[in-house]
Amino acid sequence: MGMIEIGPQDELKKLYHKPANRKIKLCSIIAISITLALLIAILIWMNQLSNLYLSILKGFVGLFAIIFVVLYGVLEYRVNREFIDERGR
After folding, report:
1. Which of 4, 11, 42, 74 is the most exposed place for a label (fewest CB within 10 A)?
2. Could you tell me the pTM of the whole model?
């Protein structure tokens, strides 16, 4: 059996916990939380809301989902770029 390499995981955790990256992570968590809250609201009040309001809510759900994907992609890019830069030195 081989040994498990622990070093890169510790380095990646340090990069994820930098202040700027923590802010991006927090913003992405907030965006996905709003998305889930709106989806639950749509499920609960589907019969009471008009088609216009349902369409508006679905639009906001899509918007916040896109915001989440963009923020998470930015976070992954920043962390991996810094990790690769440090490993190349």
Report:
1. 4
2. 0.83
